[in-house]
Amino acid sequence: MAVTLRSADPDFETRFTAFLATKREVSADVEAVVRDIIARVRAGGDKALIDYTLRFDKADLGSLGIAVSRADIEAAYAAADPETVEALKFARDRIRSHHQRQLPKDDRYTDPLGVELGSRWTAVEAVGLYVPGGTASYPSSVLMNAVPAKVAGVERIVMVVPASGGIISPLVLVAADLAGVSEIYRIGGAQAVAALAYGTETIRPVAKIVGPGNAYVAAAKRQVFGTVGIDMIAGPSEVLVIADGKNDPDWIAADLLAQAEHDASAQSILITDNAAFAAAVEAAVQRQLATLPRAETAAASWRDFGAVILVGDLEDALPLADRIAAEHLELAVDDPEAYLARLRNAGSVFLGRHTPEAIGDYVAGSNHVLPTARSARFSSGLSVLDFVKRMSLLKLGPDQLRQLAPAAIALATAEGLDAHGRSVSIRLNM
Amino acid sequence: MAVTLRSADPDFETRFTAFLATKREVSADVEAVVRDIIARVRAGGDKALIDYTLRFDKADLGSLGIAVSRADIEAAYAAADPETVEALKFARDRIRSHHQRQLPKDDRYTDPLGVELGSRWTAVEAVGLYVPGGTASYPSSVLMNAVPAKVAGVERIVMVVPASGGIISPLVLVAADLAGVSEIYRIGGAQAVAALAYGTETIRPVAKIVGPGNAYVAAAKRQVFGTVGIDMIAGPSEVLVIADGKNDPDWIAADLLAQAEHDASAQSILITDNAAFAAAVEAAVQRQLATLPRAETAAASWRDFGAVILVGDLEDALPLADRIAAEHLELAVDDPEAYLARLRNAGSVFLGRHTPEAIGDYVAGSNHVLPTARSARFSSGLSVLDFVKRMSLLKLGPDQLRQLAPAAIALATAEGLDAHGRSVSIRLNM
User: Fold this and answer.
1) SS3 content of chain A, % helix, strand, coil (to 5)
2) Protein fold of B31-104+122-230
3) Most buried of A60, A135, A182, A394, CB within 10 angstroms?
4) How many CB atoms lie within 10 A of CB B10?
């Protein structure tokens, strides 16, 4: 059973603040180990990758090869369930259509003084995509990371995925191929991040690394940041459902459990104004758990991090939702647009009773890589913007320089930067 | 004298690669000290801020107050040179006009299946702006950081600036006021970053922290990242000038020195196809150094990190420029647009012979906070986008859910996430 907080209780603010501050992950201290792995890959190149992979993944890349071949990919198509491959194509197409709308536009204009200004966007030249192995090796995540990079125009999309015992999920390879990944390597962990950042004999370095991973991967990404760009560090997943009493408790319970089954550290929160409905949802959660393959994980998540928040008026949920800044926010109410208009912080918002969050995980077209752990207060989900960057442009002629010069020289002088002022005045014989 | 590399030399690639890898900053190991300061500010609040400020800045905030008052700001206006205040207003207005063009547009549409998708942008609710003290306390940087936040619609823009001996530059206070900063506190260092991230009795926490600082500030920003957002970690400044032999050597020398005077770790690079011109620029650099107040700094930067690269054809400069990925790139050539069209990586590009980089530092309107240390390969200069974030939106009715359900359920099943599938199927009585 999840914890219950009531907004009417006198200690609600204290309890809610403590709830917000709850840490759901123990961050293992792997800094030193990771630092060593990165140094060894930089020094040893392919040989270090082969050694680490034998040790950590029990796979012999000396015989398998570091790179996945075209034949490997064809074999993966042959091994995959055709219906699932079709579903991946359907998802890929929808993700592509949606993300094409995110391509930023160049801007070039001349201001009233005749100064030309502008912004020009270009794609990052090469991107590394980390894909976890084992049960967290999700083909849908491959699409969500690779398709926006492809839409952005990234020329090299380089995927790394550990091959435990030599095996990579066929669907992961198929998803990579469908998404337009250009190179795939059978490596994982901090050693794979090091290879992407610094290169080896086989792997040319990339400019940015994205994708989720375990504590070693996250630490490695932090350590190579600066040499390459990185995406956000993903925490455990979470959903906040704001629901009135008119919902079917079973539907809402299913949504809470869909989040909880991800991970024992996942978090599902229900805010409602109806105590009887809340009790019915809790009962439905317990009932549905009985038939869920991942019941143990989901039950632990719901017990340890789940919460039901009872408010007097459902509109009181909105300021709480902004403070929670959930990765996923469902608005299971009659007029979700009215709620949306008053919201500021959420990664993705699912409007109305027929928009379960899981649709967004797979086939809606929107991205499922979203800010966790309250970071929606200051960041956004993955998009095409993560794979492009902007040059600012400036062009003056002699007349424009003459008009801007006095203020520029005044400020350079005030800041004690005389050479700055001189680089302007010397062009005007001032 | 700067180092010279010749693209025709057989060891050019080796030397250029080594040049790219040159570290210009020694990163002091201040992690442990910073961790302690942050913990003490979290525990001690205002009292810890007052203690640290007395110790590090020799200022008694117990009597001065932590917060800068309206009267302090009025006194700063009275103390400032009126011409410089006018120059700041001129710069502020131009920065505002340019950045207003960067405001992203919401997107809402219905796809052919009737699925509603969208993106909705909202401002970060509160932003902290770190401003260094001493000689690096630049009013222009206050404008460059605060104006885009204001344009984005950030409600609380909270500035911190250390008051060494109790003193803050009047122009910094004036710039903050002109830019629309809403709160100013007399604190600096890791303690200021901790106060912004976690709050104290006097200072409410913010959601994102931006602005340059020393090694302690940079380490503190890294440590609080996650609790709040941060901007990029700024390295020493740099300029790359691509110039043909038709330029006045004195103009180009002035531009190289304008960068070099910032910091002994700054870097100025000239690429040209004309050896006689290169020699003339070097002679001009030496001549101009003689009359430069910051000659010692500029000479050290030019000697230790400056470079002249001689290429056979000036077009050969372009792939080198993409690898250097300079913060500032000047194209002092007849047809800069033709060069621009073939470039991918640079923070800001200054087109033509009458666009010295220093104009962009102050009054052009574009932002002077730009990616350093080759990070223009994967990141962009500061903009309005750094102060907004996007919610993705999704809305389905029963018909749309029915159409998307089979693919979603197939993928959920393939990934072993049965509760995901159930949250879809339960709404369809499947």
Assistant:
1) 50, 15, 35
2) Rossmann fold (3.40.50)
3) A394
4) 7
Opening angle at CA A137, ends A366 and B416, nearest 5: 85
Instruction: Please determine, looking at this structure, whether the domain spanning B396-428 carries the CATH number 2.30.29.30.
Output: no
Phi, psi for B290 (deg, rounded to 5): -60, -30
Question: What's the CATH number of domain B235-377, 3.30.70.330, 3.10.490.10, 3.40.50.2000, 3.40.50.1980?
Answer: 3.40.50.1980
Residue-level pLDDT at A29: 81
Rounded-to-integer distance, Cα B170 and Cα B186, Å: 13
Give the pLDDT confidence score for residue A430 in this predicted structure. 60
A348: CB partners within 8 A, 6+ apart: A327, A328, A329, A357, A360, A366, A368, A370, A381, B391, B392, B393, B394
The CA distance from B27 to B25, in Å, is 6
Q: CB-based contacts of A224: which residues, under 8 Å, 6+ apart?
A: A38, A193, A194, A196, A197, A198, A209, A230
Tokens of B259: 């960068």
Categorize the per-residue pLDDT at A1 as very low, low, confident or very high, splitting at 50, 70 and 90.
Answer: confident
Query: Is the complex ipTM more than 0.90?
Result: yes
Closest CA to A426 of B234, B404, B356, B251: B251
Query: Which chain A residue shows the shortest CA-CA distance from B369?
Result: A392
Nearest to A251 among B135, B371, B426 (CB): B426
The yes-or-no answer to whether B31-104+122-230 and B235-377 have a common fold is yes
What pLDDT digit, counting tens, does each position of A84-116 carry? 999 999 999 999 999 999 999 999 999 999 999
In CATH, what class is A31-107+123-230?
Answer: alpha beta
Letter string b/e over residues A137-167, b meaning 16 or more CB atoms within 10 A of that residue's CB: bbbbbbbbbbbbbbbbebebbbbbbbbbeee
**Contacting residues of A for B257, CB less than 8 Å apart:** 419, 422-423
Which residues partner with B383 through β-bridges? none
Tokens matching residue B412: 């959920």
DSSP code string of A6-23: ETTSTTHHHHHHHHHH--
- pLDDT tens by residue, A39-84: 999 999 999 999 999 999 999 999 999 999 999 999 999 999 999 9
Query: Which tokens is B363 given?
Result: 């009054």
Q: What is the pLDDT of residue B430?
A: 60
Tell me: the pLDDT tens digits for A110-160?
A: 999 999 999 999 999 999 999 999 877 899 999 999 999 999 999 999 999
Contact check, Cβ <8 Å, A423/B358: yes
- In chain A, the percentage of residues whose pLDDT exceeds 70 is 100
Nearest CA to B177 out of B99, B69, B101, B95 is that of: B69
What DSSP designation does A45 have? T
A and B: number of Cβ contacts within 8 A: 363
* Residue B164 per-residue DSSP state: B
Taking residue B137's Cβ as centre, other Cβ atoms within 10 Å add up to: 21
Find tokens 């995980």 and name the residue: A361
Domain boundaries, chain B: 31-104+122-230, 235-377, 396-428
Residue A159: helix, strand or coil by DSSP?
Answer: strand
Contact B175, B151 (CB under 8 A): no
Helix (H) or strand (E) holding B422, with range, is helix B418-425
> B420, B425, B429: which to substitute to probe chain A, counting the most A Cβ within 10 Å?
B420
The CATH number of A3-23+235-364, from 3.40.50.10330, 2.40.420.20, 1.10.150.120, 3.40.50.1980, is 3.40.50.1980
Annotated binding site of B for substrate: 237, 259, 262, 328, 361, 415, 420
Tokens of A10: 């006198």
Q: What is the mean pLDDT of residues A322-331?
A: 98
CB of A215 less than 8 A from some CB of B? no
